[in-house]
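User: I'm curious whether this sequence folds into something compact or stays loose and floppy. Could you predict its structure so I can see for myself?
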Amino acid sequence: MKRRYFMQTMLVATAAIGIATPSLANDKVYLIDFVILNEGSDISDRDRYEERIAPMAARTGLSVIKSVNLLQHLNGGIQEAVRLNIWEMESPANMQALMQDAQYQAEIPTRDAIHNMKDLSLYLATETADNGGLGEGMVLVDLVVMNDGYGAAERDAYEAKVAPIAAQYGMELAAAYTIDQKLNGAATDDALRLNLWSVADPAAMQDLNGDPAYQALADERNRLHDFSQLTLFMGQSNN
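Assistant: Here's the prediction. I'll summarize afterward.
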């Protein structure tokens, strides 16, 4: 019951956090990479793999700009994900160039041995906010899914109401990405955006849940969001 209560609290608090006016919008393309490993592999295997492919990715125009180790799954799908990487590139052509790189192709057997390539989940996205990075603290990973009939406009309006409430509890938007296309994996097909929140104190989310101003928005929150698909993790910045 304690874990269930904590999960419900995190769900409530996550939906409460508001997106600030976007501080950065550019023409870059972003690859959202939820890493899922095969049984018998661990995060150290992924670390070594990332070290090997980093030079190949760099010369073909990709770089990891944000990385979060996923410590606790709170809601939604892809329970087995262990890391989230955000890759920056000029266009999807950079991905194709990496796939065709001879050195990268030599890594494919190792890649496939380490990773669950069926469930590993990838999205293409557009950056809509970047408020200074993730720092070294805790991060709430929030893959937003709306109920049928609601979209970005309704989410934005809701967030504008709850942003000042969430700020009182040490939750600040670090970055936001609009999902443009799902490429692969077991994650939901219906994600609207990915939000990354810097969380000063995860325990404060329970206090947010009990805030009267936030509670007054509960009916709107529940009407808008599909909590059966909305995916949450608590993680630690790996940057």
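Summary: The chain is about 35% helix and 30% strand. Helices lie at 2-16, 43-59, 93-100, 102-114, 152-167, 204-209, 212-215, 218-224.
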